[in-house]
Target: KRR1 small subunit processome component
Amino acid sequence: MPSTQNKDKPWDTDDIDKWKIDPFTSADNIAGTFTEESSFATLFPKYREVYLRREWPEITRVLEKHGIVCQLDLVEGSMTVKTTRKTFDPAAILKARDLLKLLARSVPREKAIEIMRDDRAADIIKIRNLVRNKDRFVKRRQRILGPNGSTQKALELLTECYIHVQGNTVSAMGPYKGLKEVRRVVTDCMANIHPIYHIKELMIKRELAKDPELVNENWERFLPHFKKRNLAKRRKPFKIVDKGKKPYTPFPPPQEKSKVDLQIESGEYFLGKQAKERAVREKREDAMKEKMREKRREREADFVPPKEDLAKKEKKRKRKEEDGVEKKKKKKKKKKREEASVDEE
Model:
């Protein structure tokens, strides 16, 4: 039986982009209005209140085109979006929810409203719980921005995403493929892998994608492989045990004395509770006094005059005296010669 699939399709030409996503219009919604109302609410910080109040009319105007109603509650500090009977796109309410999240994370209104496009998505990356130490967290968060925001700009160009670092989160908005790369870069940066390595990798991938011969090949051999180098100083153990070979003895090592045995030997075991506390306090005070004396010696060391070399000074003085005696003798001889020459004349 001949195949019916091999027939000519005059409408299927090469100039058609089969991967193109057409915008969703009201004509595409065959089912009609929604049976239930969907709503999402998001809280926003106090410092965003003035900005949101000023920009809210413009946000309302953008959401009305998609049939979404929005409400700003300044008493509770929340923003709410709801579907209406005019809503035709089921994904519009999810896009509106993401819009509220971006606005709450200090993203400007001009950038945030782009999320309503079909080819845009948002991702809020929480980074505070990835690093325990506060100082280390601040330094690693600064790496995402880079000097004068250069690292952030490079990532935005390579991933085609808008990136906004605010507080304990990183807000990203763009195509799905770019968002995946942004999340990987941010999480690795918090794990102490510098973003510059990912930027190099993305630049190489971008150039390889332009080559038609390498588009469908494995790019693993072209990508750089950076070895992990732990340059931190090795932690020295409190007790360094010699693991070298020791001479063999058939006798076992002597049993180490327990804490109680050491206390009995020193007599601390037989002291009362108050005497023990007094001994601990005195020991602490002695250590503190010793430390204070040491610090005082360090401070006074700057004001101690340097020691002068008296032997060198003595040598110089003697040399000067000898030179002075020799000069006097020369002057006397000169005078005698002059007097003798006058007598002869």
